[in-house]
Design brief:
heterodimer, A: Methylamine Dehydrogenase, Chain H, 3 helices, 30 strands, globular, disordered N terminus, B: 3 domains, two-stranded antiparallel sheet, 15 helices, 4 strands, 40% helix, 2% strand, elongated, C2H2-type domain-containing protein (chain B), metal-binding (chain B), nucleus (chain B)
Chain lengths: 362, 457
């Protein structure tokens, strides 16, 4: 029996009623196992229940004024936050569909994370700042934390916030102190914080950062770049810990032919998506080549390669229990193609076998 | 004669060994190499299949596992390109083959040098040297004494001649008349380049050493007439100190080789040996004696070389020549205790000379072949330079490979400044223009949009 399985022997379902345009983000609920939010460039946020059969999968969709770039669940399955090109950070009541603007950035909102532990919502924007919200506070005065560059990705570890930005900048904040600072500083806007990051780093990769993902174990994080590469870094700044960091190539296609010169070339795809398994510690990556790969970040091995999908992988996400892997694909995303191929935006949910995502045996 | 002891494989054997392109290991024969490559480099990571080539593995991965081969496993960094079709020794690029060859040669010589340094043995194949030393060995004490006497006599004669010459005001010609084969001491440098040849040995220069034996960079077997015009070299020392000596004018140089490493010592010679020493006395020249044992026997000498052990203290006017025993000792790296020569050259007595074959390979490798001959700072300095040059050339090749590989990559999204989303957001169909009147803390109700029921869609 082959060690690697392909699509046929692991049930991979495609969600019915997918978004009509490129997908920007997918998020599983941290409160239940099957609820999935999908944000799309078609100006909608979609809420699915992946456990249902096709007709009942799509629970609701929420219209926005502009393309939505990120979405996340709030304190429970009824609360979500979204942000997008209209620069607003919104709270969505998933039951009633009521939307509330929490704050407005100066440019589009690119990333959102919600810390259940601190009841804190953090929004990152291309205006080179993050807004820190406490949506439960009444009134909530979001505080603004200026950053050196456009925010591309936010990622939460149990005690850390990793902000990856343009120009390969990367800041790590201590979540607890950031929360304390924001909470104490809450006052009438403008409410600008001046918080030094816990660690100021540079991306370990040479090219533009695509996304980051933190390990649930709170040990470190992974960064991916547009140049088919993933770096694994560790929070601990001690020398021995830093010596463990590494980077590797992936999501490349060898031996292709250059259409212009006929020369043999390696096509290098951006790594758009990273996600850590909530319990096993393995990592999933999705690239512009339409591939989703599973990695063992400790033994630095690839543990699985799924059959290539027909379009660029936009996002991957494990659910809370770690038995589902959601994969969003949409075409023309990374190469700036104007025309979106009709029906290329699709969401797959893969049910993982017991040992499918586990680490290599030592 | 004792049978020649075989000391490890020779260079040809080493060069003939098949080796693995991917990990530079070499093997007994091609079959072993093939099984190595199948097991280490062309093994499918997903099943137990072993393929014959990287291309085969790639096709297998593609067809059986729906996967692509990114790189050849277990290969050195620069050689992971799975597109190269390599089977055993077939298909290895020429530059890499050459680099490997050079590396093998280099390593071989390094090992030989290390071995020789350790044992003090002459290199294998240095036939001329061993014969010469054997002949010298046969010299009996009587012969030595006789030679010594001759030297003394000759020295006396020379001194007399010098005095005479000085009186007569024509120093050089006068002394030439007296001695059979004289050379002007101040003729140095290029003319006295000591070629690296087997058995070139170093003997200690002594203060007052008045008997140089030059070898001229001349084609072998051409006798060097003493009437040769002095080379246009700077004269070391004041003109009054011009020395002439009955040196031998032979030039038995079987291997005129690269000489650069040896030029330096000549030029710095004069200051090193003090007033009594001729400007051009050089440790590298003394061994010439060994090249012409016949002449050694025939020609009277005057020399101030180290006294042989057991001989009476030398008279003020002359000293016994180096005898065979001492020579032998010098050749084997055991300096006579009384040898107080300060020159660091002397300590390099265990001269190790590459044999002609080695020299051939070395020159092929564009390398200065002097490292095995003389570990002297000057010589080895040059050699090390040569070595680094060669090694870096070897390293350069894979690096260039890597660059070439990099050139062949094409990034799907090459913009290092702006993310794809930002570009997408600038497309007209996604353009969003916030109404000017709207404020952040404005009326929430106004911004509410009605949820769209999925079923109603």
């Amino acid at each position: 029996m082959p060690k690697f399985s392909d699509a046929s022997n692991s049930p991979q379902r495609e969600l019915a009623n997918p978004p009509t345009d490129a997908i920007s983000s997918i998020k599983f609920s941290p409160h239940s196992d099957s609820r999935l939010l999908v944000a799309s460039w078609d100006k909608h946020v979609y809420l699915y229940d992946t456990s249902q059969d096709d007709e009942n999968q799509l629970i609701k969709k929420f219209e926005h004024r502009a393309p939505v770039l990120d979405v996340c669940f709030g304190k429970d399955d009824n609360e979500a936050f979204s942000g997008g090109l209209d620069m607003d950070v919104r709270k969505i009541d998933l039951t009633t569909g009521e939307q509330t603007v929490l704050s407005t950035h100066d440019k589009a909102v690119k990333a959102l994370v919600y810390s259940t532990q601190h009841s804190m919502l953090i929004s990152g924007s291309w205006d080179s700042s993050i807004h820190i919200h406490h949506p439960d506070n009444k009134p909530d005065y979001p505080s603004t934390l200026p950053l050196p560059s456009k925010v591309y990705s936010l990622s939460l570890a149990p005690t850390r916030l990793v902000i990856s930005m343009a120009s390969r900048a990367l800041y790590i904040y201590d979540l607890y102190s950031l929360n304390t600072l924001a909470a104490s500083a809450e006052s009438e806007p403008p409410n600008t914080l001046n918080a030094e990051p816990w660690q100021r780093r540079e991306s370990a990769l040479k090219h533009l950062t695509r996304t980051t993902a933190c390990m649930p174990s709170d040990e470190g994080y992974a960064t991916s770049s547009i140049e088919g590469r993933i770096a694994v870094d560790w929070f601990d700044s001690s020398e021995e810990s830093q010596a463990r960091k590494y980077a590797f190539k992936c999501h490349r296609q060898n031996g292709g032919k250059d259409p212009e010169t006929g020369e043999e070339i390696d096509v290098v795809y951006p790594v758009n998506a990273l996600a850590f398994h909530p319990t096993l510690g393995s990592m999933a990556s999705g690239g512009g080549d339409g591939q989703v790969l599973l990695w063992d970040p400790l033994s630095k091995r690839r543990t699985k390669a799924y059959a290539p999908l027909p379009a660029s992988v936009a996002a991957v996400e494990f659910n809370r229990a770690g038995n589902l892997l959601a994969i969003a694909i949409s075409s023309g995303f990374e190469d700036g193609k104007v025309d979106m191929v009709e029906g290329s935006a699709r969401v797959f949910v893969r049910e993982l076998a017991e040992n499918e995502a586990k680490l290599k045996k030592k | 004669m004792a049978s020649k002891k075989k000391r490890g494989p020779d260079l040809d054997d080493l060069l003939d060994r098949p080796w693995c392109y991917y990990c530079e290991r070499d093997f007994e024969d091609v079959r072993v190499l093939i099984s190595h490559q199948k097991a280490k480099h062309f093994k499918c990571p997903k099943c137990t299949r072993r393929l014959n080539t990287a291309g085969g593995l790639s096709v297998h991965l593609n067809q059986v596992h729906k996967d692509t081969l990114d790189e050849v496993e277990g290969a050195v960094v620069s050689r992971r390109d799975p597109t190269l079709e390599i089977f055993a020794m077939e298909g290895i690029p020429d530059d890499i083959l050459q680099a490997h060859r050079q590396r093998v040669i280099l390593k071989f010589h390094e090992e030989q040098a290390a071995h020789q340094a350790l044992t003090g043995n002459p290199p294998s194949g240095g036939g001329a040297t061993s014969h010469a030393s054997k002949k010298l060995k046969q010299e009996t004490p009587q012969e030595i004494k006789q030679r010594l006497a001759e030297r003394i006599a000759e020295s006396k004669a020379r001194r007399a001649a010098q005095l005479e010459a000085q009186k007569g005001g024509s120093d050089v010609t006068a002394s030439q008349e007296i001695s059979q084969s004289q050379e002007q001491f101040h003729a140095t440098s290029a003319a006295y380049i000591q070629p690296p040849y087997p058995g070139s040995q170093v003997s200690p220069p002594q203060p007052g050493f008045a008997q140089p034996h030059y070898s001229y960079s001349q084609p072998p077997t051409v006798l060097q007439p003493f009437t040769q015009t002095p080379p246009p070299q700077p004269v070391f020392g004041p003109p009054g100190q011009q020395y002439t000596a009955p040196g031998q004018t032979y030039n038995t140089q079987p291997y005129p080789g690269p000489a650069t490493p040896f030029q330096q010592p000549f030029q710095t010679g004069p200051s090193r040996f003090g007033a009594g020493s001729p400007a051009s006395v050089n440790p590298y020249q003394a061994p010439q004696q060994r090249q012409s044992p016949v002449e050694n026997g025939n020609t009277p000498r005057q020399t101030n070389l180290t006294p042989a052990p057991g001989l009476p203290p030398r008279p003020a006017f002359g000293t016994p020549s180096v005898n065979a025993f001492e020579m032998q000792q010098l050749h084997h790296g055991h300096m006579p205790g009384q040898n107080s020569v300060p020159s660091h050259h002397v300590q390099q007595t265990p001269a190790q000379t590459p044999n002609p074959e080695m020299q051939k390979y070395l020159s092929e490798a564009h390398q200065v072949p002097a490292n095995t001959m003389s570990p002297s700072g000057l010589a080895s300095g040059t050699v090390q330079h040569g070595e680094t040059a060669t090694t870096s050339a070897v390293q350069e090749a894979p690096r260039a490979d890597k660059k070439a590989q990099n050139k062949r990559t094409k990034m799907v999204y090459p913009d290092d400044e702006v993310s794809p989303e930002e570009k997408l957001s600038e497309l007209p169909k996604y353009a969003f223009h916030r109404p000017a009147v709207e404020t952040t803390t404005g009326d929430i109700e106004a911004k509410q949009t009605n949820p769209v029921d999925a079923t109603a869609d």
